[in-house]
Amino acid sequence: MDMVELLGYAASIMVALSLTMKDIVKLRVLNFIGCALFTAYGLMIDSWPVVLTNGFIACVNVYFLTKMWRAKIE
After folding, report:
1. What is the C-alpha separation between 49 and 36, in angstroms, rounded?
2. Which alpha helices (H) appear in the chain, and where do they start and end?
3. Residue 20: is it exposed, middle or buried by C-beta count within 10 angstroms (0-12/13-18/19+)?
4. For residue 74, what pLDDT is reported?
5. Distance in angstroms (rounded) separating the CA atoms of residues 44 and 62
6. What is the pTM of this model?
7. 12: how many CB neighbours lie within 10 A of its CB?
8. If we measure between CA atoms, which residue out of 34, 31, 29, 26 comes closest to residue 8?
9. pLDDT over threshold 80, residue 36
10. Which residue in 10, 41, 69, 71 has the fewest CB atoms around it within 10 Å?
C-alpha cells in the first residue's frame, strides 16, 4: 500500500467518522478535514471530479463554520 492509497483511506475514515457526530460543529470540522484530504488525494491521482466535488464541500463546511462562529460571538 503506497502513501496515495493511505491518504484515500484516511480521507474516507474522516468523512465516515464525521457522519457519526451529534455536534454539528464537530461534524463540519471532521468533514472538512476529510474533504481536504480527499481533495489532495484527487490531485495526486489526477481525478478532477474528486477534486472539484470535495473542494466544493470543504468550502461549504468553511462557510457554515464561519457563519456559526460569527453568530456565537455576536
Report:
1. 14
2. 3-18, 24-44, 48-73
3. exposed
4. 77
5. 23
6. 0.92
7. 14
8. 34
9. yes
10. 71
The position carrying cell 470535495 is 54
DSSP letter assigned to residue 24:
H
C-alpha to C-alpha distance for 47 and 40, rounded to whole angstroms? 10
pLDDT for 40-58, tens place per residue?
999 999 999 999 999 999 9
| Alpha carbons 74 and 72: distance in angstroms, whole number | 6
Q: What gap in Å lies between CA 56 and CA 62, rounded to an integer? A: 10
Cell of 24: 454539528
C-alpha cell recorded at residue 61: 463546511
- Phi/psi for 47 (5° steps) reads -115, 100
Say which amino acid occupies 60.
V
